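Morning!

As promised:
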Amino acid sequence: MLKFLAGSVAALAIFVSGAVANAQTLKMWGPEQITEPLVAELWNGIKADFEKANPGVKVEFMPPTGTISNGAVQSAIQSNVGPDVILTNSGIGRISIVRNAKQVMPLTEQYEKRGWKNQIYPWLYAELKGQFGGDVYEVPDGLDALGIWYHKDLFAQAGWKVPATWKEFETLLAAIDAKGLQPIAIGPRTTGSAGHLFGNLLQSASGKEMIGKALRKEIAWDDPKVAAGAVRLQKLVEAGFIKKEMAGLDLDGASRLWFNKRAAMFVAGPWFTANARKAGYDLVNAGYAPMPSDNPGEAIPTGGVGWSWLVPVNSKQPDLAMKWIDFMLSDPVMKKRAQAPASTMIYPRELTGIEPPTPVLKEIFAAAAAGVGYNPSVYLPATVLDTYFQVIQGLISGQVTGEAGMKQIQAKMAEAK
Amino acid sequence: MINRETPGSSTAAPLGNRSALAKTATVEAGGSAAGRFDSRDTGSALWLMAPALVLYAIFSLLPIAATFWLSFNSSAGFNTASSFVGLDNYAATAADPIVWQSLWHTLLWLIYHVVLAGGLGLALALAISRLKVTQVFFRTAFFLPHLVSLAVVGVIWANIYDPFYGLINTALTELGLGAFTQGWLSDPALVLFSVNVASSWQGFGLYMLLFIAGLQNIDHTLYDAAEVDGASAWQKLVYVTLPGLREVTTFVVSLAMINGLKGFATVFVMTNGGPFYQSELITTYIYRLAFQSQDHGRAAVLCILLSLLAIVITLVFNRWRARLSK
């Protein structure tokens, strides 16, 4: 009997140690808003599919405590007990921070070896290849397209039309203001939110080409041709179309104004559908249009790479991380995500036969079909970003003029390598 | 007369410690120990101190040394090779206007915290110390905010200050005082004070408890004597209570200054240093440089500056306190 017991215990120990040895856990930083039931349902399904396809593998989500912009991703990597693979807000500005700190792996070889380069738009791959001398550190998961969100019912009741020119836009702002509503809500305490409106204003005044040149340092940021957008923001504040008090709001505070229809317009991207759903806003009532441009035919959303996969240099499961990215780029997963009610973004390659789950996403996809402009928040070097966001806050709180603010950005830009 | 004992002469002390204990007793008795420790004693003392010294070296001295080293280097992160740049980081820091702005804000923040949190702590301690039945209730109620994390306090107060939906502006509007509504977190003249109110609200409970303890130690016969002499309530406060609280006040001010210099969480959560750097503190700027811009060299320079600031303030305060108590 004793022998039997001892044998059983030994067998159990061997089994358990074997199982432990074979078990692999992939810790994933993300996804955001996992507490939302629809998001949780989608991602738990993806996780289950991956675990089924890879026996012995467990995927563990790490709800993000922030982004690269506020240092949360860097701190998580630095802890050395952080994620094995990361899904976070990206763009060259952010990626350069973790790349320069040598916190993320180059994935250039993987693009060739695993065929990732054929799984994203060719223009997107070309753009990524041009950023760090041919090396690529991210795999795009979603693209952003920032434009104006408005309430269809409010506009219909008041007889307001989506403006086609800047002049019409100003007239619309005055009409909304006269009605006692906030024309535009903005929450610049959340840096991204500050950049969304500002990037749109820069593009509306100067055009995509000019902003591209400024980002490539081919023209100075304080050149009147580029600074026009900042002056535009200053004038909107002076006219009371953007209240100075909004400098004290964050994204949640500003979007609350819009969801409660105390504000008529809000600049955001496709991800705003998740915020709207969470706030109980009826997405059928949401309309989307690009900000009017002074350049005819250039009224397009701003944007760029919005979210990407990164692999930290200290990932405990680098091979599994690559497998996970393979899986996420696969057709079934991407289509599943694009059609899910929790879908909130534009995917990094063309997906045929997909019907966006909400009408507003359809409008966003249509607006972005002709391409998107630059959202400087994701293209500016890390050392400039902070000044950029603070200048936007300064403009909204009336502490700095458009010209002076752009001079500060230019000074930082000149220092940046 | 020095009573030098030799090992074995005492029966009470444990064997290994008898010599050291005897010498301690001797020194306490007024004798001079200079030159009386032999090398064996020094060795034992070092062995006994070693665990504490090692921990102190690992967790205090090494980081201090590393910070100094980092301040002379250019480093984009812990994983990158750093290069010696001499005093470049110091020069860049001195030329950065935001550094001076944040230094000024840090001093203001410290003063606000000492006055608001310390002052409120004293006022409430005075108000509730005479209560018989309800004192425990008020003491607990006023201490409760101190148990809430500063990050949560930041979120709560950011909502209270919301210009459109916040408690303060809504209440003012409802009371017909709409003209007094403010952009509490957007007005450059108000923002630092507003955030400090939130931070002080979290901190005053501890200071209140310390003042209550101090009040309980004041001899009540002094109040009786003042009463007999016909002193008013104000005179009793000024000539009995406040002098009686001198030691506690010194401690509370020191503590409040240290907490003031450490101010970070509420600013980070409520304004992140904005708008346009109007609530930037040295601590938030250090975070921004180190973890957002990955400029560890300049962040290290600011750490040293903050340490120097703490040392200078403590020295000045201690000197002032010493002069006061003469």
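Confidence is low (pLDDT under 50) at residues 1-31 of chain B.

Hope this helps with the figure draft.
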